[in-house]
Amino acid sequence: MYQDIPIKVTRxxxxxxxxxxxxxxxxxxxxxxxxxxxxxxxxxxxxxxxEPLKPLSIHPGNMAWHYGQAIFEGMKxxxxxxxxxxxxxxxxxxxxxxxxxxxxxxxxxxxEAFLKGIKMLVELEKHWIPKGEQxxxxxxxxxxxxxxxxxVRPSKTYKLxxxxxxxxxxxxxxLNVLVQTKYIRGVEGGVGFAKTAGNxxxxxxxxxxxxxxxxxxxxxxxxKEFRYVQEAGTMNIMFRLKDKVVTPMLTGAILPGxxxxxxxxxxxxxxxxxxxxxxxxxxxxxxxxxxxLIECFGAGTAAVVAHVSNLHYEGFDMGFDASSWxxxxxxxxxxxxxxxxxxxxxxxxxMSTAGAxxxxxxx
Length: 363
Ligand SMILES: Cc1ncc(COP(=O)(O)O)c(C=O)c1O
Known about the structure:
This protein is α+β, with helices and mostly antiparallel strands. Helix content is 23%, strand content 29%.
């Protein structure tokens, strides 16, 4: 039913695209001209529209700010060799947004409306998609509570917004990472698997402490014992142990990354043994000392694959140099090529925006 919903499109009078330096696109700074929005009122989603991106006017008593009903997604669109925008696995992103919504007692957003809206937005903003291989149009769906109310209960109204940002590469160097053995991020039964704002707020203090010591990121560990690896700040984490790849299993405490899932598909397709399991840091360290831990890399939409040059655990540095990044480089290229429409998309991961604005009246 939602594939037929009307989405009103109102264009900006004057695009800002001419003011943007596409040769210098730090991550998260530039926004395109338009955003997709919808409102949840009286128990249903309504007011689906694409409109000029502008600040919202929000009452200080807005519940999202007080009680944290705020969830989001991060995904990418790029141009294929024919110059047509392609979205990467948008169906998985709306599925995860709705899983986050469920845990935070927020309403489901209809998948068909999401796919229709995001395709229209990207088609409308296609001139904003940067052309470099590691550049993209980053898409940021966000859902927040909008009731004005003081007192803890779920909001009755919500807003969904999708913003679009042209971005360059997320990291421009390999990462020096600290295994965190004091603070925790996620716990089974908690909200680690949900992409909810509070998870990132809670991570800031320990992450900044690590940065003050010269690290780029932290690796979170399972609470209490601090023995099993969970994930890195904005990425899942993978290890190559000789010819096998291991990654922490999904326990509900970590984010089920879509890049992680894509990499696991690709590795299994290549016949490389992969294991989703409990990853014991002491075993990693022992394997490193035996020369069997060859590569360590992060997996996430923003960086796709981020090479780890150093993993620090309790006074010991596990260093990896560029000569060892053979598999992670190959994986990064494979995902980039599928995402950019350069090779066969055998799993049907990409979605074209072609035709999304046909028969749409734009005012
Ligand atoms: C905490 C965390 N883990 C993992 C990921 C990787 O997820 P994905 O590959 O879906 O971007 C992200 C990024 O969204 C993240 O914020």
